[in-house]
Amino acid sequence: MAASTDTKRQELITCERLDGIGFGVSVRLQTGQTLGHALAEFRSCPELLLDVFYEAGGLMVFEGLESIVEAPHELVEISSLFGSEVENYEQTLTPKHMIHEQIPQILLLSNLPPCERKPPPQPQPARTATGDLPVQFPHRRGWHTDQSFRRPPPDISLFYAVEPVPRGQGQTLFADGVSAYEALPEATRNRIEPLNGLHALLGTGRSVRAGEPVTPVEDHQRSQPQPLVRKHPVTGKSALYSCESGQMDWHDGPIVGLQPGVVGDGAALLYELMTHYTQPAFTYVHEWRRHDLVIYDNRCLIHAATWYDSDRHARLMWRTTVGGNPGGEYQGEEKSWIPRDGAELLHGLGEARWDPAEKTSV
After folding, report:
1. If 361 and its partner were Cys, which of 55, 109, 190, 319 is the partner (CB 3.0–4.6 Å)?
2. Burial letters for 243-257: b for 16+ Cβ neighbours within 10 Å, e otherwise?
3. Per-residue DSSP letters for 171-196?
């Protein structure tokens, strides 16, 4: 069976590990293959693609998928291979102008109207002492995993370049939580194993010092605890799971049970972990090409956006989000971010959810 699967895979796609790092794989359709035909084969045998994805640590760069631009439903079809739930953004915390007009499972991320999502500022200085692009926290800010304010959090995201900016800017950075966790001293692993981070919805006013007043929120907008170490439900490997900035609750967190606030013991631990997690040895810098599709596992990776010249260049990216297998810890939980009393999803938050300071694109 394994031999026949390998043979079929080789007929459909080529696979090469990403150069110079310990995780990630580059995939292309074989010459003469179409995405439509490949999708039919993948639906018949999802392991053709999924085995490659998980063996590569949850990062796949699928190159040259031109057909998705004219057939955006193909992006949803690929997404459905990775989980049982492809998010419909019309039913979640998403402004209508950021949703694809025909395909509500596609989120629009662009600096063009009506989205107007600006890139993050350049780090200072813009380069390291060796002339490289900064990746390590705190020189590089904005490291996060998608929608970590949710319980259960999403599993996998798919990010497609309709119109990227020129090479050398607008990159997306990825860091490997499995390798970072395994490289920690045993004492640190033992310390963080039982701990939870406290993750906040942007716009809820939780990025304040401990003791300062915060905006009242609805039940479905409350900050949510997430384990600092997650065991992957497919691979069984443990990975760090954390964010370093706007998605953490700095009023009651960022670490449950430790001194709260930006100068507390919890912050010190989080900064220590994020500095370790984002070392160059654990990171990959993706230079976008038109029609790249990057598939990344939020359960074991974090990512960060980089600056681009939005005054000179247009950028349009599409994203889908997949859930359904967050792991045993979340078994049977209702979705924390869905109101149960008829309340509006963004009631009381208004435009704060999309504050211009947070309008950055991965």
Report:
1. 109
2. bbbbbbbbbbbbbbe
3. -EEEEEHHHHHHTS-HHHHHHHTT-E
- pLDDT of 3 strictly over 70: no
- Residues near 125 by Cβ (< 8 Å), separated by ≥ 6? none
Token pair of 65 as six digits: 């998928």
CA distances (Å), 360 to each of 116, 152, 160, 315, in order? 9, 24, 16, 12
CA-CA distance, 320 to 160, in Å (whole number)? 9
Q: What angle do CA 186, 188, 193 make, to 5 degrees?
A: 95
Three-state secondary structure call for residue 210 = coil
Residue spans per domain, the chain: 2-358
* Per-residue confidence band for 205, with pLDDT thresholds at 50, 70 and 90: confident
CA distances from 287 to 31, 52, 63 (A): 23, 21, 12
**Exposed / middle / buried, residue 35 (Cβ in 10 Å: 0-12, 13-18, 19+):** buried
Q: Which structure tokens are listed for 9?
A: 């895979």
Report the C-alpha gap between 73 and 225 in whole angstroms.
34
- Please indicate whether residue 317 or residue 339 has the higher confidence score (pLDDT): 317
With beta carbons less than 8 A apart as the criterion, state whether 97 and 112 touch.
no
Q: Is-contact 306 133, C-beta < 8 A?
A: yes
CA atoms in the 13 A half-sphere facing the CB of 57: 23
Chain segment 97-126, per-residue pLDDT in tens: 999 999 999 999 999 999 999 999 999 999
Q: Is-contact 195 236, C-beta < 8 A?
A: no
Give the CB-side neighbour count of residue 253, counting CA atoms within 13 A.
31
